[in-house]
Amino acid sequence: MGVAIKFRKGTATEHASFEGQAAEVTVQTNTTGLPWSLRVHDGENASGYWVPTVDDVATLTNKTLTNVVLSGTVKDASGNVLGTISGGKLILGAGLIMVGEEDLELMVSRLSRKNQMILGD
User: Fold this and answer.
1) Which of 15, 43, 96, 110 would you call most buried, defined as having the most Cβ atoms within 10 angstroms of its Cβ?
2) Are strands 89-92 and 81-86 parallel, antiparallel or unpaired?
3) Which domain, by its residues, includes 103?
């Protein structure tokens, strides 16, 4: 069997005031929904930087994604399905494309009726 390595650990509250050494890795023990998470420290700021795992749910803000492969469903924050990804296309449900406060499907329907009245079809 190989060599065992043990990291320091603590709760989120303890990590909030802990300024680890540069490149030090610690374990946060009371992570929501997970038994633990890793944090990497820079030796300057308290709490360190959270290292997300494949099972984590993270909010991406101001991130650029390249060569992204999506599959499955697209949901809102409440879990409502907005669309599905199938055959290289994003298929949205009826009434889900909005232009300002207007439903795009409803706008197209109104335009079609107006064109029918104007053209007499």
Assistant:
1) 15
2) antiparallel
3) 72-119
Q: What is the pLDDT of residue 53?
A: 78
DSSP state, residue 44: S
pLDDT below 50 — which residues of the chain?
A: none
- Asked if residue 38 is part of any domain, the answer here is yes
Tens digits of residue pLDDT in 32-52: 777 888 999 999 998 899 888
Residue 18 lies in a domain: yes
Beta strand 25-28 pairing with 9-10: parallel
Q: How many domains does the chain have?
A: 2
**Together in a domain, 47 and 76:** no
Contact between 48 and 15 under an 8 Å Cβ cutoff? The reply is yes
Rounded CA separation 114/121 (Å) = 10
Phi, psi of 106 (to 5 degrees): -65, -40
